[in-house]
Write a structure and sequence with these properties.
about 625 residues; alpha/beta; Glutamine Phosphoribosylpyrophosphate, subunit 1, domain 1; Rossmann fold; 3 domains; seven-stranded antiparallel β-sheet; binds 5-amino-5-deoxy-1-O-phosphono-D-mannitol; cytoplasm; aminotransferase
């Protein structure tokens, strides 16, 4: 899970664009994918010049300032999340081999690298890093000088046939100074098409400042880009076609826009993310028209089980969705972590609908689970935020969330957009299968349409939550309780705090409290409680209010998230955070927001890098 960028330009068409600047800009935008080290290599005056540095792109920029690189029209760059080898300077990419004649950057894992290294060592090669990438680069160089007779694309084909695992590799060579050759297998790579210039990126944000025209590539393909265009072949050398598309993301959407962090900005983007995800998906009567779901309606009608697969925050969105889908469609619905699903021999057949949730569309665990489900005969619908990414490409259909680029490692707007999209899917299935009357669907849609404004209200009241985060900055542990749809919200609140504030946090189902977790409560323990609507079903509200009393009696500091007008909570709460009234199933879209603001506030207060928390990367593209 690294970020990769490539650029080649024609100076007479694009005299303003220097490879180093273009590549560095791409790396800054892709840094969310990994930030253990960064590096660039450019070609100029018959030579490859490289700089690389452990740490973030800023450290690389400082290194380049200290030791400048020449002007150039051809360059590659890399920002790394370490897998093989520590995040040191020497393990950073690019790896320059063949006496400085070839430079390579790589994302992914080459599983058979030990065997290949031994083979190359036997031929007399030595290695200076601990990385699998240096092995791949050396194999490429060996093949280029040997059997491929100086043909870089051919050498890449032959090398890829020897590599096992998942990888994207970009290579430049002094013997082919007008081109970058890149290979892709189970790891992302997108081509950007400019005028007199071409780009490569792990995703479109790698070149979004320069062009809106892009091309998807399939697995097992190799592309050669020159300033004039691109040419794709398979690993066997057969000509292949890419799929051209126009990038809908706005370059400005991938900027901080005056906020302190991308996370803060993305929290503020949430009303728009929900609005845009709803847009164009129903008519004025509330009839859903999900044209992109081109799966035979008779198949969707015969579905007898739904399995939602995802990881992390996306899995919590799936847990929220389960309550709605089962309620609306009366189809048994399971939610499973993709990596658990994949390896437990799940019962899946052609009547199973698998819904794969992923912001990035590149999470390897989810991708593998999608493949597994399809092999068993299931239909797979992806719900994804990143156009052209692997999961939608491999699914039978995709319902895109329109949250715009999510840069911060901690997912916020994608979560709310995923819930929105799964709700649309649930309503669509209910419409198709006749589980709900048209006016019932219409009224749910009308409630969904009110949510962006309500989310805005919650954001507008953030000062109270920000004050709480300052007050609680020294807490050693924070607990979160919720019931029904409030339970996944509690899990999500805890995850946010763990990942960006490095603070111990746990989410529990409130009903589970007396079965164990209540033993954790002692004087001063902060506990967030998500209170269901008092107008909601059964006696859920009363039960959660009892839970608040139980923990308060044992010394907890209770921070209660409750609807406006819910007075019953006042006497038992140390703090009440108000959210607008809404039906129970809509509540996660509101109750999550203060928890995001709280985590962002605590991390900021502690002085941590909110957007790039330690040890993490935005998309986990290795298993
Ligand atoms: O791109 P995906 O939605 O597939 O990513 C899944 C998880 O890795 C992701 O949600 C992760 O848990 C976030 N860092 C949470 O904030």
């Amino acid at each position: 899970m690294c970020g990769i960028v490539g650029y080649v330009g024609n100076p007479s068409v694009q005299p303003e664009h220097d490879a180093l600047e273009v590549v560095l800009e791409g790396l800054r935008r892709l840094e969310y994918r990994g930030y253990d080290s960064a590096g660039v290599a450019v070609y100029a005056d018959g030579q490859i010049a490289a700089r690389k540095k452990a740490g973030k792109v800023a450290a690389l920029e400082a290194e380049i300032e200290r030791s400048p690189l020449p002007a150039s029209q051809l360059g590659i760059g890399h920002t790394r999340w370490a897998t093989h080898g520590a995040p040191s300077d020497v393990n950073s990419h690019p790896h320059v081999v063949a006496g400085g004649k070839l430079a390579v950057v790589h994302n992914g894992i080459i599983e058979n690298f030990v065997e290949l290294r031994t083979e190359l060592q036997a031929k007399g090669y030595t290695f200076i890093s601990e990385t699998d990438t240096e092995v791949a680069a050396t194999l490429l160089a060996d093949t280029l000088e040997g059997e491929a007779a100086g043909n870089l694309s051919k050498a890449m084909q032959m090398t890829c046939q020897r590599l096992e695992g998942a990888f994207t590799i970009l290579a430049i060579s002094v013997d082919a100074p007008d081109r970058i050759v890149a290979a892709r297998l189970n790891s992302p790579l997108v081509i950007g098409v400019g005028e007199g210039e071409m780009f490569l990126g792990s995703d479109v944000s790698g070149f979004i400042d320069y062009t809106k025209q892009a091309v998807e590539m399939d697995n097992g393909q190799i592309v050669t880009i020159t300033a004039e265009g691109y040419d794709i072949v398979t690993f066997d050398g057969e000509p292949a076609q890419g799929k051209e598309f126009t990038i809908e993301w706005d370059a400005a959407a991938a900027k901080k826009d005056g906020f302190n962090s991308f996370m803060e900005k993305e929290i503020h983007d949430q009303p728009a993310a929900i609005r845009d995800t709803l847009m164009g998906r129903f008519d004025e009567n509330g009839k859903l028209t999900l044209d992109e779901l081109h799966i035979d309606e008779s198949i969707l009608r015969s579905v007898d089980k739904i399995i939602v697969i995802a990881c992390g925050t996306a899995a919590y969105a799936g847990q929220v969705a389960r309550y709605a889908i089962e309620h609306w469609c009366r189809i048994p619905t399971e939610v499973e972590l993709a990596h658990e699903f994949r390896y437990r021999d799940p019962i899946v057949n052609e009547k199973t609908l698998v819904v794969a949730l992923s912001q990035s569309g590149e999470t390897m665990d989810t991708l593998m689970a999608v493949r597994h489900a399809r092999e068993q005969g299931a239909k797979v619908i992806a719900i994804c935020n990143t156009y052209g990414s692997s999961i939608p490409r491999e699914a039978d259909a995709c319902l895109y969330t329109h949250a715009g680029p999510e840069i911060s490692v901690a997912s916020t707007k994608a979560f709310l957009a995923q819930i929105t999209a799964t709700y649309l899917l649930g309503l669509y299935l209910a419409q198709l299968r006749g589980n709900m009357f048209a006016d019932e669907i219409h009224s749910v849609i009308a409630e969904l349409q009110k949510i962006p404004e309500k989310v805005q209200d919650v954001i507008d009241n953030k000062a109270q939550v920000e004050q709480l985060s300052r007050d609680m900055v020294d807490a050693k542990s924070v607990l979160f309780l919720g019931r029904h749809v409030g339970f996944p919200v509690a899990l999500e609140g805890a995850l946010k705090l763990k990942e960006i504030a490095y603070l111990h946090a746990e989410g529990f189902a409130a009903g589970e409290l007396k079965h164990g977790p209540i033993a954790l409560i002692e004087e001063g323990q902060p506990v967030f409680v998500i209170v269901p609507s008092p107008r909601g079903r059964d006696s859920l509200h009363a039960k959660v209010v009892s839970n608040i009393q139980e923990i308060r009696a044992r010394g907890a500091i209770t921070i209660v998230i409750a609807e406006e007008g819910d007075d019953a909570v006042e006497q038992f709460a140390n703090h009440v955070i108000r959210i607008p009234q809404s039906p129970t199933l809509m509540q996660p879209l509101l109750a999550t927001v203060p928890l995001q603001i709280f985590a962002c506030g605590v991390a900021t207060e502690k002085g941590y890098d909110v957007d790039q928390p330690r040890n993490l990367a935005k998309s986990v593209t290795v298993e």
